[in-house]
Amino acid sequence: MRILVIGGGGREHALVAALAADDASHELHAAPGNPGTALLATNHAVPADDIDRLADLVDAFAIDLTVVGPEVPLAMGLADRLRSEGRTVFGPGAAAAQIEASKAFAKDVMARAGVPTAASEVFDTLQPALDHVAEHPEPMVVKASGLAAGKGAVVCATRAEAADAVRAMLSDQSLGAAGGTIVIEAFLEGEELSVFAVTNGREITLLPSAQDHKRIGEGDRGANTGGMGAYAPVAIATPALLERARREVLIPTLRELDRRGAPYRGVLYAGLMIHPDGTPNVVEFNCRFGDPEAQVILPLVSAGLTALLDAAARGQALPPVTVREGAAVTTVLASAGYPASSHKGDPITIPDRLPDGVTVYHAGTATADDGSLVTSGGRVLAVTAVAASFGEAQSSSRDTAERIAFDGKQFRRDIGWREKERGEKREERRE
Predict the structure, then answer these.
(1) Half-sphere exposure of 279 (CA within 13 A, CB side)
(2) Segment 3-31, tens digit of pLDDT
(3) Does domain 191-425 have CATH number 3.30.470.20?
(4) What pLDDT digit, counting tens, does each position of 75-95 carry?
(5) 139: closest CA among 88, 82, 189?
(6) How many whole angstroms separate alpha carbon 307 and alpha carbon 3?
(7) Domain spanning 2-93 has what CATH number?
(8) CATH, range 119-186
(9) Strand spans (E) along 159-279
C-alpha cells in the first residue's frame, strides 16, 4: 500500500514507524516529514497546511491512504478536499474537526449530546468576560477557543490570575485569532486521562489509553507546554471506566456530529478528567492523535494498525488490532528556552546503539549543511521505551534521555510519577 503521512513532528514519525512495522511492504511517504521519517519514508518538502500541493502530491504518487497527523490541515479541510477527489483519507472533515478547532463548538456539541464536562461560558468581548470572572468560584480555567498548539488553556488559582489571562487573550491578543473567543469554565478535580477512539463514524475501536505531562518542570510545575512526556497504559483506565467513556462520551459525541451533518472518520481523542469517585468529564476533544501520546500508544499496537486506519477512512467495519503486553514511556527532550522560545541549530548527539525496546522519535530536528543533526524546534526528540513493566520502561526511557546531548537540553525525569506511586502503594499493601 502507498501511504502518505501528513506532518513533520514526533507524532508523524511515530505514525510512519508504526505503519512500517505493521507491514514492511508499504511504500511510505511523508510531507514534510523530518530527519526521522526520512529513515523510513520518502520525504516531500510540502508544508502540512498547503492543501493544493498536498492534493497534487496524493495524485502524483497515486497514494492509497493519506493519514493526516496535525489538526491544522484537518480544520482547513484537507480531508474534504481529498475525499471530493475520490481519495481515501484518515481524518475528519473540516466540519467535524471543529470539535478541536473551536472549544465553543465542542462545548455546544457536548451540551446537546449530554456529555459530562465542566460548566462554562463563552465570551468574545472583554468586559463581560471580566464581569463573569469577578463572580466565578476559584479556581477556574480560561481557554482560547481556537487552535493554540496545545497552549491555549490556563488554569487560574485566583480571579486575579483569570482576569490577567482574559486580558492577555482578548485584549492583548497573546494567542492571535485563536484567543479571539474564549471559554471560561469550572476547574475539575481529578486525574487526566487521554482516550483514543479510532472510528468510522458509527463504531469505535479503543487504542491504549495514555497520560500526558504538560508542565515543563518535574512534579507538574512550571509553564504549560505541548507535552513533555507520556506513558501507556494507565492503571486508572479500567475496562469499566473505558466502557463508561465509550457509552457516555464517545458514542454520543459521534452521533451528535453526525446529526449536524459532520460525520467523523479518523481518531477522536477525548481528554478526560477522572474525578476521585470515578466520574469522567471531558476536558477537551482533539481531532487527531496526541503528541507525545502517539509515541507511546502506537508502539503498543503490534498488529493490524494499517487495516484499522484504512477501514475507518473508508467507513467500513473496523477490524481488530493486537496490543502487546507491557508498557511504554516517552520522555520529551526540549530545546533551551522552551516553551517561551526555542533555540535552533544546536548539534545533537544520539548514541549509535540504543537499548532494546527504545526508539528515538524526531520532532524538532533538521539536517545541517554538513549532514549533521541539529535542533530546529521547541520539542526536539521523544525517547520511547517499550518494556514488560512500567518501571522498566520508565527507567529505560529516562536513562536513554540522559545519554542524548545538545546544548540547553531540558527534560523531565519523572514521567509517569503517578503510575510509579500507584505501583509503590501496591507493593506496600502486599507487604
Answers:
(1) 9
(2) 999 999 999 999 999 999 999 999 999 99
(3) yes
(4) 999 999 999 999 999 999 999
(5) 189
(6) 12
(7) 3.40.50.20
(8) 3.30.1490.20
(9) 182-186, 191-199, 204-206, 211-212, 215-217, 221-224, 229-232, 266-274
